[in-house]
Design goal:
Layout (H helix, E strand, L loop, with lengths): L5 H11 L7 E4 L6 H9 L4 E5 L5 H16 L11 H11 L5 E6 L1 H5 L5 H12 L5 E7 L2 H7 L13 E4 L5 H4 L8 H11 L3 H4 L8 H9 L9 H9 L3 H12 L5 H8 L3 H13 L3 E4 L11 E4 L2 H9 L4 H5 L3 H8 L3 H23 L8 E9 L4 E10 L4 E8 L7 H10 L7 E8 L5 H10 L2 E5 H6 L3
Parallel strand pairs: 1-4, 1-5, 2-3, 3-4, 10-11, 11-12
Antiparallel strand pairs: 6-7, 8-9, 9-10
Helix pairs in contact: 3-4, 4-6, 9-16, 9-19, 13-14, 14-15, 20-21
Length: 465
């Protein structure tokens, strides 16, 4: 089953139907669905698909040769090209009279040895691009390699790509397309536990309850998700133990760089480099108060939901899980799920607002959204606003998100309206999001103010956004 990625597919097909040589570069973290996207794109087209392996140049050349010759001439299937240059020259020759796709998946494994491969490709592209109809896709999971050795200014292939696609996990609304059997609230919880990475979503069974899925995926040592964070770190980084310590520090409440470094037992300067890598992998994110890009206020949070959920609930319970105390561990986790979902719901609300913005169905045409926190001098305390956005001029959107089983009362709206006075916008629109709806008093208050939109979670998931 192929789900989503309409925008990426449309772009690839647009390039495919454009005359001449094309070189789209596709990259993203492992398990995010790059290969599925490419397979969907090429399923009805002439294509050669080659996947690099973590081996030496000879083995990759042999595999590439077999991929090319099994497409071009079955009688030559056991013939091997003597060099990568000869292999690519042959493909360029094939593509002189036809639109032919060559996919090099896991390109970093191929380009790592020999290191001259990128320069060889560069020379062949420059020589043949005006006469060739080759559609060359370079795809890779190593984010740093693709960004530094393919897309960067000093990379040999810089300027040759005709498109680049960084494949990201699905948002909540896209993730829902994988399932039909969950209630909206349970689907939100599933998204909160595994995020929008397709491979993780496929581990979930919507014929089972949320409880059964959490037990099966996170509280069973034989489950692929049970070891996934550790396995992914081992694949992506050289010192997984240090990265694990940093993520653990953030998961248990350390958010500032100095706190994280101290908790993880790493020098602050070194911690900065580790955190940068985790950000590039999409595992953590750096936040500053909305519209304030100040290092002094920067904090770090886990952005990948699988990592957020796993580090929040699994490490403290590993001993019990290993002894088969699944029910006891789940009973310990269950009362904490609503609190955990608070931050997840904020993310879902931001995704919802962006979709409304794309449709042009929103009062404030914001240019960005984020969270704000800072001092409230009047009340002599710290204040927070869950969602804030501006149109770059004098209009602002302020929002609060409540994932609770009780209806949201007028007090939440009054506090938000009071906090809007910390700024100097002439036009403000308030958005309140609630899992369980709003009290009559809140609805009446919203009506009196006139600049308030109340949105229930049920409304969010029922609208075609």
């Amino acid at each position: 089953m192929f789900v989503g990625r309409e925008r990426e597919l449309n772009k690839l097909n647009e390039l495919y139907h454009t005359d001449g040589f094309q070189l789209p570069v596709i990259y993203g973290r492992r398990r995010v669905g790059k290969t599925a996207l490419i397979n969907e794109f090429i399923k009805d087209k002439e294509a050669i698909y080659f996947t690099g392996i973590e081996s030496n140049a000879r083995q990759n050349l042999e595999n590439l040769s077999r991929s090319i010759l099994s497409y071009a001439d079955a009688a030559l299937e056991n013939t091997l090209f003597q060099s990568f240059q000869a292999a690519f020259e042959y493909v360029f020759k094939l593509a002189e009279t036809r639109r032919l796709i060559l996919v090099i998946d896991e390109y970093p494994y191929v380009a790592g040895a020999p290191k001259s491969l990128a320069s060889t490709l560069q020379a062949l592209i420059d020589k043949n691009k005006d006469t060739s109809r080759l559609f060359l896709i370079l795809c890779g999971s190593s984010m740093s390699f693709m960004e530094n050795h393919v897309l960067a200014y000093k990379a040999p292939l810089y300027g040759r790509r005709t498109a680049q696609m960084k494949i990201l996990p699905f948002d909540f609304f896209e993730s829902r397309k994988f399932f039909r059997g969950f209630s909206a609230a349970d689907m939100a919880a599933v998204y909160g536990a595994v995020g929008g990475t397709p491979q993780y979503l496929l581990c979930i069974d919507d014929k089972l309850s949320l409880e059964e899925n959490i037990k099966r995926c996170f509280l069973d040592p034989s489950s692929p998700l049970f070891e996934e964070p550790n396995n992914l770190l081992k694949q992506e980084v050289r010192e997984p133990a240090i990265y694990n310590a940093i993520i653990t520090a953030i998961a248990i409440g350390s958010t500032k760089l100095s706190e994280i470094a101290s908790k993880a037992g790493v020098e602050t300067s070194a911690c900065t480099a580790y955190i940068k890598n985790l950000i590039s992998l999409g595992i953590i994110k750096r936040e500053t108060p909305f519209a304030e890009n100040t290092t002094r206020k920067a904090i770090y949070k886990i952005s990948d939901n699988l990592f957020r959920f796993w580090y929040r609930f699994v490490p403290d319970n590993i001993a019990a899980v290993s002894r088969g105390l699944t029910d006891a561990v789940y009973n310990k986790i269950s009362p904490l799920l609503n609190e955990y979902m608070g931050a997840v719901f904020e993310d879902i609300c931001i995704q919802y607002l962006w979709r409304l913005r794309e449709q042009g169905n929103i009062q404030i045409e914001f240019t960005d959204l984020g969270r704000w926190w800072g001092g409230d001098a009047k009340n002599k305390r710290e204040a927070e606003i869950d969602i804030m956005g501006t149109d770059g001029a004098d209009s602002a959107l302020l929002g609060e998100c409540k994932w609770t089983n009780e209806k949201v009362g007028a007090g939440v709206l009054e506090i938000l309206a009071e906090r809007s006075q910390l700024f100097h916008f002439s036009n403000v629109r308030f958005y309140l999001f609630a899992k369980a709806g709003f009290t009559k008093g809140c609805a009446e208050k919203a009506g009196k103010l006139g600049n308030v939109t109340l949105i229930t979670f049920k409304e969010m998931v029922s609208l075609d956004v």
